[in-house]
Amino acid sequence: MIIDKNGNVSIITQEKATIVELVKKIQALYPKFKNDNIIISLTSLNKISLEDIVEFLQLSNTHRNTKHSFVIVSDKVDLNVIPDEIIVVPSIQEAYDIIEMEEMERDLGF
Question: DSSP assignment, residue 18?
């Protein structure tokens, strides 16, 4: 797991651990980036299932309830089967775009 910080965005990149191990590590280190928008980059993984994405659901809901963005980046999952409660996009640039839109919505009171 690699953590990069870019302003108020923490980018967590998955390397070798399983998704379940990654979620546990993020939960353990959560206080470190709980005040940032979070991007989870899973682009290095070959295959990602819906179950893998759903592992992040509780963490995503918790983080989004604190008025911060939580975006997963993967181009290896069928975006049509992803639950609406979790945001998955195919590129890092799209993740930044989502964060920018959500920050504007929060600024406007939505």
Answer: -
Q: Are 82 and 55 in contact (CB under 8 A)?
A: no
Phi-psi region of 109 (alpha: psi -120 to 50; beta: other; left: phi over 0): left
Here the CATH number for the domain that contains residue 20 is: 3.30.750.24
What pLDDT shows up at residue 45?
A: 84
Cα–Cα distance for residue pair 75/1, rounded to 1 Å? 19
User: pTM for this one?
Assistant: 0.93
| Count of CA atoms in the C-beta half-sphere (13 A) of 25 | 15
Q: How many CB atoms lie within 10 A of CB 53?
A: 23
- 109 CA to centre of own chain: 22
DSSP class of 88: E
Q: Which domain holds residue 89?
A: 2-107
Per-residue pLDDT reduced to its tens digit, 5-34: 999 999 999 887 789 999 999 999 999 989
Determine the number of helices (DSSP H) and then strands (DSSP E) in the chain: 4, 5
